[in-house]
Amino acid sequence: MGQCCCKKRKDSQELTNVEQAIETVINQFHCYAVQGRKEYLTPNELKELVGQKLPHLGNCVGPLEEKIECLGDPNEARVEFGEYWDIMGDAAKCCQK
Amino acid sequence: MGQCCCKKRKDSQELTNVEQAIETVINQFHCYAVQGRKEYLTPNELKELVGQKLPHLGNCVGPLEEKIECLGDPNEARVEFGEYWDIMGDAAKCCQK
């Protein structure tokens, strides 16, 4: 799960590097949001995404895992795109210093 | 301004695609945050980044420009990394639907 290579919605050649980067982060949400049919992730799916796709942000991921624990039932709670983006932002803030 | 190619802090080959994407978004902040010496962007610098780096998110950028107007003095106000990440998230939310 989550290994699928999501089809890019736009022809990625024209996109700028920042647009491609944003699209990559969006695509991963859609790749892992299986139970939520691309609408939301479960905490377990988010944890899998973070574990597989953010292996080098370990020191930042620690607090992320605590955050994921607080999201509610690992299989039932819903993590919408905005929350997912905020969590990616936590990792980014941690490693941009 | 902002055309500089920021040196990647990590050897990008080992990073996953999501980590590279996050790093790209971080690097752009540092590239454009000239006045704030990588600590913050001015609204003008943010507007330049959005104009140059998010050309295809025009329909999402509209509201972004209004948001940038509300940030305060175009040359004096400070846009910290967290706010910048949130604004990139607005563009992402708009185009991930």
TrEMBL record, chains A, B:
Annotated GO MF terms: calcium ion binding; calcium-dependent protein binding; chemokine receptor binding
Any matching Pfam family: S_100
Domain of life: Eukaryota
GO BP annotation list: positive regulation of granulocyte chemotaxis; positive regulation of monocyte chemotaxis; response to lipopolysaccharide; toll-like receptor 4 signaling pathway
One term under GO cellular component: extracellular space
Domain S100/CaBP-9k-type calcium binding subdomain: residue ranges: 18-59
Protein name stated in the entry: Protein S100-A14
Species whose genome carries this gene: Alligator sinensis
